[in-house]
Amino acid sequence: MSKNLTQLLALLPGAQVSGEAAQKIEGITADSRKVAPGTLFVCLPGARVDGHNFIAQAHKLGAVAAVVEKDVPVPAGMTLIKVADSREAMQAVVPFFYDYPGRKMRMIGVTGTNGKTTTTHLIRSIFMEAGYKVGLIGTIHILIGDRMLPVQNTTPDVVDLQSTLAKMADEGIDYVIMEVSSHALELGRTAGCEFDVGVFTNLTQDHLDFHITFDKYRDAKAKLFRQLGNELSVKEGKHAVINTDDASAQALIDNCSCPVLTYGTGETDTIKAQDITIKADGARFTVHGPFGLMPLQLKITGMFNVYNTLAAIGTALAEGISASLVKKALEEFRTVAGRFELVDEGQPFAVIVDYAHTPDGLENILKTAQQFAENRIIVVFGCGGDRDKTKRPIMGRLAAQYGDVIIATSDNPRTEDPVAILADIEAGIRQGLKDGKGYEVIIDRKQAIAKALQLAEPQDIVIIAGKGHETYQILKDKTIDFDDREVARSVIREMR
Ligand SMILES: CC(=O)N[C@H]1[C@@H](OP(=O)(O)OP(=O)(O)OC[C@H]2O[C@@H](n3ccc(=O)[nH]c3=O)[C@H](O)[C@@H]2O)O[C@H](CO)[C@@H](O)[C@@H]1O[C@H](C)C(=O)N[C@@H](C)C(=O)N[C@H](CCC(=O)O)C(=O)O
Ligand SMILES: Nc1ncnc2c1ncn2[C@@H]1O[C@H](COP(=O)(O)OP(=O)(O)OP(=O)(O)O)[C@@H](O)[C@H]1O
Ligand SMILES: N[C@H](CCC[C@H](N)C(=O)O)C(=O)O
Fold first, then answer.
1. Looking at the domain covering 341-495, what would its CATH class be?
2. Strands (E), 171-229
3. Rounded to an integer, what distance in angstroms lies between the CA atom of residue 422 and that of residue 445?
4. Nearest alpha carbon, ligand 2 atom 16
């Protein structure tokens, strides 16, 4: 893949260029560590460091030109392109550089606070059942067919995203199912994507450290729906699929200029779930839709998974997949790693590892467990550092409200002091405690999990929340191996 710099400059009206413009560009990156000969290096001011500080390093590795938004010195021989906003410049040139791969495949974007990963996997299973070649981009991994690639972000930045899409297009992928985070929408990571279907799961509190207010958080999500069917689109047949049981539904619908399929439990929804039974081994319900009635017996459980399933059905309907294929795929769907994942070493109590890391996620998982708990619910949880601090006391209160035994511990403290994070959580636990219930704060996550498992009695449910599929823990500048499922398994074995 290569382009001439003059072609890229044509997309940057107003850019001031000094140095050679007519030269071949073999790649674009905003990370000096990824520069190869012939690269265009884009300098982005970041949250931690400023990309403008790495021009010399980029040049040494072979960068031939740099996009900057500040007055900085450049090494002799390097072409300098000064723009008003280097992130916007990158968003303009990168999709063009990769020949707009998002236009060559059907693109499904799923956004919402919770449920994106589960919903994208449900959609993937339906489209694979229908015989399509499917790519998936999300929190756990990127999948090209069955080939797995690692990820850093839920929604990759524009270079990684467009290069991944180009790879998918080259390999004949028909459908890309993608999690679209609010960070991505706000930072323009999805520039040039051209979504065909936009799916909304729900909106509850998270990421207020980044978006500051809930209204701004909602507005970031709305961008996905504004992008559908806008005047720049080159594709046809766009749809929005929206959960009307969520309070933000109307605000998002107001941003759609394409047809909207609604889902939920309301009479007027296009796709609605009725006669819902939530059992430990799965949810059962009947879906009413334009296809008639579809009784479903799922292997995944919880009301939240009923919603995720409806979102997947809405997407399939928008893309014309038959109800019988949808039913087959959904009833065979087992689980997503770290989402309500059972750890079974033959112990006489249940152990569930779940990725609930928001107030709504935690409440849902605890409510679901309550629906079939025969004995106590023991909850081990924490909150991430360098993330929304205001969710910590709320999660503490919810754990105290729904749990019988509460153990607060560290999640990924990142650069924060774990003791300070736990103090924020503890304030909420104290508010939520009733009936003389106690709680424990154990900083070390392994010790906290061990304590929960030692306290467990027959028929108890131990819920280990927050890290789900994660196989690491981020402590200051160290990332250590840590997997809640492995830790729980080894503790149970040692207890024997
Ligand atoms: C706040 C945020 O979104 N940060 C993202 C951002 O990093 P940053 O601004 O800290 O970058 P930086 O380290 O300061 O570097 C600035 C620039 O200098 C460059 N650099 C840096 C070092 C060097 O040696 N050379 C060099 O060129 C960097 O490549 C970058 O262009 O750009 C990076 C590269 O694209 C992202 O990986 C990083 O995500 C971090 C890891 C992150 O944790 N983001 C979270 C908040 C996030 O985006 N989460 C959402 C999911 C939310 C949800 O699921 O609801 C997501 O989509 O993942
Ligand atoms: N529709 C839903 N509504 C509320 N909570 C949900 C829903 N689906 C899943 N959850 C809860 O949220 C957790 C995370 O689910 P999932 O990974 O599907 O969401 P996500 O939006 O991809 O999260 P993230 O982008 O932060 O990784 C689950 O483990 C579960 O506890
Ligand atoms: N996408 C979320 C994941 C949080 C997972 C939790 N384990 C944490 O580290 O806070 C975020 O980046 O905020």
1. alpha beta
2. 175-179, 197-200
3. 12
4. 115
Ligand 1 atom at minimum distance from 49 CA:
14
Which atom of ligand 1 is the closest one to the Cα of 152? 37
Q: How confident is the model at residue 230 (pLDDT cuts 50, 70, 90)?
A: low
| Residue 234 pLDDT exceeds 80 | no
Mean pLDDT along residues 163-170: 97
Total-model pTM: 0.94
- The ipTM estimated for the assembled molecules is 0.95
Domain range annotation of the chain: 3-98, 101-332, 341-495
**Do the domains spanning 101-332 and 341-495 agree at the CATH topology level?**
no
Ligand 2 mutation target, pool 111, 118, 204, 353, most atoms within 8 A of CB: 118
Among candidate residues 397, 399, 406, 414, the one with its CA nearest the CA of residue 356: 399
Query: What are 25-80's pLDDT values in tens digits?
Result: 999 999 999 999 999 999 999 988 999 999 999 999 999 999 999 999 889 999 99
Which residues are CB-contacts of 160 (< 8 A; sequence separation ≥ 6)? 152
Homologous superfamily of the 3-98 domain (CATH)? MurE/MurF, N-terminal domain (3.40.1390.10)
Strand order in the sheet with 461-465: 341-342, 350-354, 461-465, 377-381, 405-408, 439-441
267: Cβ contacts below 8 Å, ≥ 6 apart: none
Q: What pLDDT, on the 0 to 100 scale, is given for residue 206?
A: 86
The per-residue pLDDT of the chain, averaged, comes to 95
CB atoms within 10 A of CB 424: 18
Span between the terminal Cα atoms of the chain, in Å: 58
What digits encode the pLDDT tens for the residues 70-126?
999 889 999 999 999 999 999 999 999 999 999 999 999 999 999 999 999 999 999
Q: Looking at the domain that runs over 101-332, which CATH code has it been given? A: 3.40.1190.10
